[in-house]
Amino acid sequence: MNDRDLVKRICEGDENSFRLLVEKYQDIVFRTCYGFLKNVEDSEDLTQDVFIKVYRKIQDFRGDSEFSTWLYRIAVNMSINVLRQNKRRKLFENIENVIFSAGKNNQNSLIDVSVEEQFEKKQYENAINAAIDELPTNQKTAFIFHKYDDLSQIEIANIMNTSVSAVESLIHRAKQNLQNKLISVYKGNK
User: Fold this and answer.
1) What value does the mean pLDDT take over residues 89-97?
2) How far, in whole angstroms, is CA 99 from its chain's centroid?
3) Residue 106 has pLDDT above 60, yes or no
4) CATH 1.10.260.40 fits 3-188, yes or no
5) CB 42 within 8 A of CB 82
6) What is the tens place of the pLDDT at every residue in 171-190?
7) Over 70: is that where the pLDDT of 111 sits?
């Protein structure tokens, strides 16, 4: 059964069709949310929120684009909203997670080296995530779709409502910006 048939049945009140739609797109929506949020629990929660919104707004789907494109737009917009609302909270949670995991692993003083290595690895992960978060919204969106969701440039162009050449340019500029930011972080830690 294709997406348009599922949407039609959902609009007619068929809850089983909605379940099928969720099963089909759940992993993709999660990866999209995770690409923005970088936190499994928050991404799982937001994935549920996305599907709640889809269920409530399914009547608004006009069919001008593919259902998956409409769904991606909802996931991206909701992810960006969460980032805007929780940017400061995330920074403190990441710091607490590093400290907590270091303290948890440091129960035996013989593990000091691995704690230091874990802390350093976490710092670099945080630097990468921070660099991605600092990208302009369009670059960040194209980059996440390309790297996290492994979407083609044509699919990304449809979702972002732009041309394939614009997507190519956004991805290229995102990679350049990330490279420049991460080089400065790396040089700063030496």
Assistant:
1) 54
2) 24
3) no
4) no
5) yes
6) 999 999 888 888 876 666 55
7) no
